[in-house]
Amino acid sequence: MKFNNHSKHKYFYQRSTLFNMEQAISYERIPTLIYADSDAASRAVAHEIAGIIRQRSNEGKLAVLGLATGSSPKKVYAELIRMHREEGLSFQNVVTFNLDEYYPMQPDSVQSYVRFMREQLFDHIDIPSGNWHLPDGTLPLEKLAEFCKDYEAQIERYGGLDFQLLGIGRNGHIGFNEPGSLVNSRTRLMTLDLTTQIDAAGDFGGLAKVSKKAITMGVQKIMEAKRVVLLAWGEHKATNVARAVEGSVSSDVPASYLQLHENASFVIDTAAASQLTRMRTPWMVDSVNWDRAMIKKAVIHLALTVNKPVLKLTNADYNENGLSDLLALYGQAYDINIEVFNYLQHSITGWPGGKPNADDSNRPERAYPAKKKVIIFSPHPDDDIISMGGTFQRLHDQGHDVHVAYQTSGNIAVADDEALRFAEFVVDFNERFEANNAKANRIYREAAKFLKAKKDSEIDTPEVRYIKGLIRRGEAKNTCRYVGIKKENIHFLDMPFYETGTIQKNPIGEKDVEIVMNLIDEVQPHQIYAAGDLADPHGTHKVCLDAIIQAVQKLKHREYMNSCWIWLYKGAWQEWDIDQIEMAVPMSPDQVLKKRYGIFKHQSQKDGVPFQGSDAREFWQRAEDRNSNTAKLYNKLGLAEYEAMEAFVRWKI
Ligand code: F6R
């Protein structure tokens, strides 16, 4: 269903937190506030909610809140809890209605939204126990229709929702109103879209185990709320945020219905904003500062839009595509073209550790020291080879002293039957040779017993987690052997934040940072490679990067840090935009194959792993597609044609 936007055609002149765009003609049809990160944004939203609660309390009234689950609102709830504890914010006058619950679902299940809400909010505040409501996942099917009707009637009896908090699915859903849901849809049982099921696979321990259905509040009730705030963090949300905010109102993207709401806002971080026009092509929205990065971005965008290599762009191309002021600044397309072509050319190098005895003034890395000490930080045990396997190999082959630091054990991503296979292997091996380490035997037997009887979503015992961690450790060692890395240069950091046994990780702690610091201090590297990828489904990469950033900040006054350069690669899920790339390392067809076989060493991560994320391709396929795509883009822009390329951005301390 498509709506005619002109019926409610608004151009918003907005103030956003990061970008002063009041003067800009906006393409955005929903007021959108962009924050540098989700912490600051969540605090602002929590404060708005607290304001409503206090105001209603002053009036002697109830505040009726519509709440969401998922990863997006967690920090909002954490801030509300903090305000309750430290600032005396009371929830005595609060009534809540959650958007949804899986069906069927027992409230104490790990995946239940009842459990989620209790753990994330209700058990930590003074909300009266009868005041919070969630759809009931335990009802028999025949009672659902009546329940749904009554859920809406209850909201109405309280005078409707004062505030509705929303997340957005990767497919644009709100609540579990999947694409195709109508604007007047009611609270109902919904079959979950495949994308939603894939995104939930992590919580359920595999796609096959995900609930196929959920009860969701309908779009109509959401639209009736007096105020609606939708949260979105991370680049995996960016495409649908842009479609919802700038596209036409359509049931294909249910979040776009919020264009029709009088008082709805999107509160998002810069990553989720990255596909908005004001971020992608800011020169089309307002006057911009034409620095090197902006020029590069604009010219590359132009070349790809008009489908021409950079050196063939004409004055007319610039003028006809919103870049007349850039052209006016230079006078001739030719001059801009040459400059940008050179930027691109200079980012390509087959010498990621620098080329000894060569003029390095136009190379991404320094020629000296010729033999560099390098640490590759790999959040999970396979990110090194998946994301920068070609560069990893080159650094080794070009004689650098390469260390690899595996930041987490990656144990939750090993399937139970894989762990069982290993546990039984040890048990059978011991039996055959009558190996009599009774304690070890018992541990493995118990682990095997646990795995055979394990219920869905039950948390692994520490022993099982250890076995799973060992499996991944073995695979990582195997990759290092394959690349040629010596044993003493392989470091397993097992950062403690990761070791919860569940998807939900602990926040980064001092110990995590200290472990990273110690390694950097020991190696005193000239180069650090780290995953700058913020889009992995469980946020592990972000925590791992934060730990490195904090460690580096603490160490920055050490002498050796003056000559330490930090290169960021992207993890398995995304690639840098072509205009951001500062070092592109080409690969030949043989090198691509070599990398593929390196990725194959991670057998536990092949063939539909539990945490595949949103992409059904195997990791080696994603890596190859992505590396070949980067090479194709360079070629399209008029540079040499390579088989594949790995991409890096330099992070300056
Ligand atoms: C949750 C809900 C969903 C989520 C959406 C985003 O109650 O209704 O619409 O808000 O799937 O999930 P996260 O925030 O986990 O990315």
TrEMBL record:
Sorted alphabetically, the keyword list is: Hydrolase
Q: Where is the Glucosamine/galactosamine-6-phosphate isomerase domain?
A: 37-261
Enzyme class, spelled out: hydrolase
Tell me the GO molecular function terms.
Answer: glucosamine-6-phosphate deaminase activity
Q: Does the record carry Hydrolase as a key word? A: yes
Q: What is its EC number?
A: 3.5.99.6
UniProt-listed PANTHER family: GLUCOSAMINE-6-PHOSPHATE DEAMINASE-LIKE PROTEIN BT_0258-RELATED, GLUCOSAMINE-6-PHOSPHATE ISOMERASE
The identity of this protein, by name, is: Glucosamine-6-phosphate deaminase
* Biological source species: Arcicella rigui
Provide the taxonomic classification: Bacteria, Pseudomonadati, Bacteroidota, Cytophagia, Cytophagales
